[in-house]
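Example 3.2
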Amino acid sequence: MSNPGKTNHNLFLLVMALLFALPNFAHAVDEYVWLHVDGKYIKKSPLCTEPNAIWMGCGLAHRPNGPESLEWQKNKVDWVASKKNINVVRISINNMDDFPDSQVYISSFLAPVINWYKEKRIYSIIDSHYYMHDSALWSGSFWDLSNPSTNYLRWRNDWVDVATYFKDEPWVAGYELCNEPIIQTGNGTVARCRDIYKDTISRIRAVDTKHIFFIGNARWSHLEYHKDCWETGLPSNEQYNPDPGYGQVVFTFHEYTKCAELYASVGGKVNDEIGRIQSTFNVPIMCTEFGQDETGAHGLCEWEKRRFEQEMIEMCYGQPNFWQGVNLTSGTDVSRGTPKGSKVGWILWRVSGSSANFNLSSRWTDIWEYAAEQQASSAPEPVIDTSSPTVISQVRDGTGADDADYTEQLSANWDVSIDTESGVRRFLYAVGTSAGAADVLDWTATSSGTVRTAIVTGVQLQANQKYYFSVKAQNWSGLVSVVTNSNGQYVINNDSPQIPVSINVYPNPVTSSSGKTAKFIIKENNITMVCIYTVSGKLVKKLTSAAAAGDPSMEWDGKNADGEKARRGIYIYKITTTAGAMATGKIALK
């Protein structure tokens, strides 16, 4: 039976670029914005003015009260941006309930909201606010990778579509795939939760290799259960490694007052677990949801909830007695513990006075606005680079350390170029039949600034034609160095047509230890020169005729220009006739 959901999804992928009449995301100019995981921290791009500096997120939730107008969304963006030093938002949405399909979800909500935050230089984390159940809450069946429900498939496909659209947008910090998986109901298991996470990550990686994943665990994403989900029963190479080959995962947790105490002095485990996981497994952690909501207990005093927010912020930042001496409206400045981790970012869930709404109002700004001002990392700044990379000293034909006159494949390698400001992003190379030309291969980019070799295939080559490489370096500001050209190479290819002469080379192979020589004869013409090269293109010996009219044959004794025996192996010969024609081939020396 056909799967209409899958059909619609495939059609969407094919026409996505045509259907979305919205701003295109991320050009190379924004490369300095990308965040990445490095050890136990999120870090800034190596291309910004603070290369690879630790990035700490201090943010708020962007959560609509159900379907709401774009005008309300824009007002929310402006309101968040008006708060001091907020540098990230968690865009939490019930996409499967509020939108008929991923196209509408992205085009009518995600794309404009993320673009508005981008204009404010605020990162977005996209959160699909579900529980791995066939319901908006957790009353339905728990999802099963081996027997996927319609609801599960929609969630999974939406993520692939979202990643396809935003794959090049660096102001999207990453994807929080699922709000809080809950295995306590609906026949859920830790293994099923973990497998769904890993499978979805692998599918997204097929279209998006850059973004960070923000991953919780199987029990409400409470921190103390990370061990059950990402350690227990797993081999060491799989622990905290749901993104093999990339390692771009931040392990998230959610906590509220009385759900779990933070410090051990009052019976809490969260602080100790942060320290243990960061130090033992060298992975980053982030609290992507906490606040004044009452979830684990009700009827709490306001000072208890204020103290919880203060302790969470202090613990995440990692500075003991962070609040000591701070002039707060109310609440305590006495710490009940010492943070065990550091630079664990935080995002407040609800900052308005009402637990039921996400209004454009807030409470306790004396706590979180002050904290963001002290803790939040600044937005990255581009390196201003007005100078080009240095000129490449030499472009060598072939792949060896010596410049080659003859090669077995069209290839070149070159020296380094240096750019002390923004760095060398990549090299550009072209191939032509004259120095500086690009009539064989137009300008082509290497994958990075560390790749300094090129092998060209798939182009039509002519026998006895000399080919030249041209190479220039490009920095991250787009400036390029002066072009450096190679000296040119002839490519020996047995499939290429040779000049119409009858060549005899015998014996071939030749045994130099027996005292025999290799004789070169061209019947139609006399020979003026025979050059012997190694396969890397290095000249071994040049044989020349003493007579202006050339000789009917020439012989090679298997020795180099210094009279030493050449090593056993394959050599390339080039014969030049009195008519100026050239012929090439291979000879074996044993």
